[in-house]
DNA sequence: AAATTCGCAACATCAAATGTTACAAATCGA
DNA sequence: TCGATTTGTAACATTTGATGTTGCGAATTT
């Protein structure tokens, strides 16, 4: 399949929403992401189901952020968008009858598991607030020039 | 796309070849992997290009292992099969004009890079000889029962 | 009532691995 | 040399899950 960019996309949107006091429509968000409003609704439905954003229908409606930036991590967003596959690499057969294959699977799965735990750990340590602060730091640096 | 199982498959084949003094035909290997002989030839062509295996055409031909098990790591095989994408997850846009998106990309890419380095490091530390030894250890344990 | 906006189903597209078919080329044995 | 075996390779089909698209109903505001 294509590479799953839902995490990056949603983080991008959430940081914009954090600096905006009115709702963004799906069309506006689709413009930010250079995609389609239906893709936005579909992906953000996962965030809404976990309470990270809210949506309102009708005129003047749209999407607003609904979570504490200090308590929401990149891992929370990753899980909310439903990303199942982290790796493009995998085992050939999860329950091999061949003992050679079981040894191979065990070694490869072990390496993959360690990398996955590191990635999950990294994502779990970064909050939306920290990303927002990085953005403000860049803005302040550019103002000084 | 589907998950890339070329590394696991080739490791499986290499360990079988290491215990076999005659060539395996692509058909025999396809039988081990429950796939098609053309898939086998295509994938193993990468290993051959790096000198890890040899192939001989014609009657009595087939594939033989041609590397030092003690010097060949899982990383060598991973690279030989041409696996480019390690992650199913990625950035939405590699060169964003939006400063918010650049902050997001930097954080996500950083987490992915660290996990990738750990995985590459793990694969580079395991030799084919070590996998073969794990297999023999299992065989010895089963004989004792 | 009209315009706006989300919700959602249904289907199309994309990308890369995997699967399949067909045939040429090389090698071995009789 | 002939025939069987086996690899080499091109061309095309299939699979899988994210992404893209169209259409229309439902909710909300004015």
Automatic annotation (TrEMBL), chains A, B:
Pfam families: Rrf2. SUPFAM superfamilies: Winged helix' DNA-binding domain (SSF46785). PANTHER family: HTH-TYPE TRANSCRIPTIONAL REGULATOR YWGB-RELATED, WINGED HELIX-TURN-HELIX TRANSCRIPTIONAL REGULATOR, RRF2 FAMILY. This is Rrf2 family transcriptional regulator.
């Amino acid at each position: 399949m294509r590479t799953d960019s839902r995490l990056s996309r949603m983080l991008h949107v959430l940081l914009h929403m954090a600096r905006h006091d009115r709702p963004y429509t799906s069309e506006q968000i689709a413009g930010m992401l250079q995609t389609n409003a239906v893709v936005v609704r579909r992906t953000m439905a996962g965030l809404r189901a976990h309470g990270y954003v809210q949506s309102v229908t009708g005129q003047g409606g749209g999407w607003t952020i609904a979570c504490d930036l200090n308590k929401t991590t990149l891992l929370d967003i990753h899980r909310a968008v439903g990303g199942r596959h982290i790796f493009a690499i995998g085992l050939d057969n999860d329950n091999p009858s061949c003992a050679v294959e079981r040894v191979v699977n065990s070694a490869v799965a072990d390496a993959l598991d360690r990398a996955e735990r590191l990635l999950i750990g990294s994502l779990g340590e970064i909050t939306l607030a920290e990303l927002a602060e990085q953005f403000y730091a860049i803005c302040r640096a550019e103002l000084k020039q």
